[in-house]
Amino acid sequence: MAYRLEKQEPIGVGLRRIAVECADAIAQQVTDETVDRDKAVHNARKSCKRLRAALRLLRDGVGTAVFQRENTRIRDVSRLLGTARDSYVLLETLTALEQQYPDALPAPLVADAHMYLAQRYEQALQQLLTQDSAIDEVLQRVRAARKRLAKLPVDKMKFTVAARSLRRVYRCGRRAFVAAYAAESGAHAFHEWRKWVKYLWYEMEIMQDLWPALLLPLADELHTLSGYLGDDHDLAELRRVALHDPSMASVADVPLLLDLIARRRAELQTAAHPLGQRIFAERPRIFVQRLATYWQAWQMDAELVLQTVSDSRVVETAVTPLQERLFTTGQAAAFANLSVEQVRSLIDEGKLAAFKLGGSWVIEKEALAQWMGDGGG
Questions:
Q1: SS3 state at 129
Q2: Which residues of 31-51 are buried (b: 16+ CB within 10 A; e: fewer)?
Q3: Burial of 86 by CB count in 10 Å (0-12 exposed, 13-18 middle, 19+ buried)?
Q4: Which residue, among 364, 361, 368, has the nearest Cα to 309 in the 3D structure?
Q5: Helix H or strand E segment including 337
Q6: pLDDT at 313
Q7: 112, 160, 163, 356: most buried by Cβ count inside 10 Å?
Q8: CATH says 301-373 is which class?
């Protein structure tokens, strides 16, 4: 499965193809007897999340009602598979905590907690495996979804339509980042931020070929950030079980376990903050304008349109619509009555969408005009 757009592939067609391939992957993964059952469930749930990320990019192309219907149905498929996996994650989380602080947790505490969580996981796994109807229901729902997804009328969808959905995801992620570090924020705020980070991560994977040298590292950073926030969420769940599950009451030194959970969560949240600052530094409009420019350059082989670019002139190899839409920094400065240094400062601050060709910055005329129309803000 190629979880990425293909060159010269209409964006609606590409996103629909990706969604269908994700549905096929889910069906294959839940029936693959050659893979460890827990890993198979984990892979299927990951494919569900990838499918939902692709659906978000199609949202404005298919309409909110269709998006919400399909998104909810795939979410419910993931939940059918979730209980056993969630129990296994608690075991992994406890093991990771023990490895992080090897001398801090008494052996009896670790042994008792492991025994309880292992029993909890085995019960959940056996319930999933012995109920053939659960897997059958997953397959039935996924196959029905695949048929509907394959018929989505998005052949003529433009990048600007997907861009609206992408802007929404980036804006929600940016707001969730601020909310997570606000005073009195709790585990829910960080979990909410994590959801938007994951959507953006998968969407950057889908778009990676627009500019691999830039978007693949961004996807990697989003993956890292998602890992920090995922570990934080798993620790919050372990804390909830330790506090509220009656069976954990018999585990000695639970307060010590809670202290270590709080300590590790603080470390993860501290590590996540600078990553969040960098990833969500831009205004959503500017972020999406950059990607729209990458899309157009990718589709039109812009590297062949402009052989060299300088602050004073553009050396043309062909006359194309793309050329007519671009300013060099010098041209942008003259047009906006700014200095070249001011233009470069706006680019550095993420206030003006730009990209590099031939080693120099170029700016879309439309982006500059919109910045001026907003009052230079």
A1: helix
A2: eeeeeeebebbbbbbbbbbbb
A3: middle
A4: 361
A5: none
A6: 42
A7: 163
A8: mainly alpha
